[in-house]
Amino acid sequence: MTKLSGKVIWITGASSGIGEALTYALAKENAKLILSARRKEELERVKGNCPKQRQPEIGILPLDLSETSTLQLSAEAAVQMFGHVDILIHNGGISQRSLIKDTAIEVDRRLMEVNYFGAVALTKFILPHFMKRRGGHFVVITSLTGKFGTPYRSGYAASKHALHGFFDAVRAEHYADHIRVSMICPGFIHTPITYSALTGDGSKLNKMDEAQYKGKPAAWCAEKIVKAIRKEKQEVYIGGREVYGAYIKRFFPSLFSRIIRNVAVR
């Protein structure tokens, strides 16, 4: 089991939701943290909520995952902050709530740009560093919708499915470099992600849907993720009853198709 004390862990999407909860959980593990998101003031708030004795070992590195041309400099800055990076947690992203027929293609492109290409770019820029050190760990916060699609999340599910394909290849290609990959698939977690979820025309939803509101606490989810990181789990599903969907889809696809048509996902 991997000890996280003293490890340098870079978290994207650290300003709210699961990323914020992970920051607090990993600070308790005495890890050195690099916090990234677009909003510097929110990152400062999250850092300020950590125990004062831990704050000197928490760095702030604002970035925008949609601006892939800037991410190489971000990766270089992350390495310089503590001299190296041990674990990169890909958590940043945006969600969606709209029917396929109502969703502009620009919205699908935006979801892929942030959720997929942003993570891929950071991975490619930090990968040489991991290879040189003969070790590293990518922790990818995808979603149960990375295992099966649901209504109202077509573009979001597509971006999460794409992450699974890419990081399966990373795991295979760089096993001999001692680079590990953990795919984390949360279900309904009570976070503010739906407030910024994109609707069909690209505007924000600006409300929390019922499924998200009734979801598991973010702190509970973060503890499960930390446990998975320690054990270097390759893939884990986190949530309530919705977790069973991954198994039903795998073993009983026809049954899953009938269920998902009418399930309450919003």
How does this structure look, described?
The protein contains nine helices and nine strands. 41% of the residues are buried. The longest helix has 29 residues, at 105-133. The chain has one domain (8-260): 3-Layer(aba) Sandwich (Rossmann fold), CATH 3.40.50.720. Strand 5, helix 5 and strand 6 form a beta-alpha-beta unit. It is globular, with a radius of gyration of 18 Å. Strands 3-2-1-4-5-6-9 form a seven-stranded parallel sheet, with helices on both faces. With 266 residues, it is an alpha/beta fold. The mean pLDDT is 96. The termini are far apart.
Spans of 5+ residues with little confidence (pLDDT < 50)? none
By DSSP, the count of extended strands is: 9
* Known CATH architecture: 3-Layer(aba) Sandwich
The main β sheet shows up as:
7 strands, parallel
Mean pLDDT: 96
Q: Count structural domains.
A: 1
Shape type: globular
Q: What is the string of SSEs from the N terminus onward?
A: EHEHEHEHEHEEHEHEHH
The computed structural class is alpha/beta
What is the first-to-last residue Cα distance? 38 Å
Write a concise keyword list for the protein shown above.
266 residues, two-stranded parallel ribbon, seven-stranded parallel beta sheet, Rossmann fold, single chain, globular, alpha/beta, 9 helices
Summarize the structure.
With 266 residues, this protein is α/β, with parallel strands linked by helices.
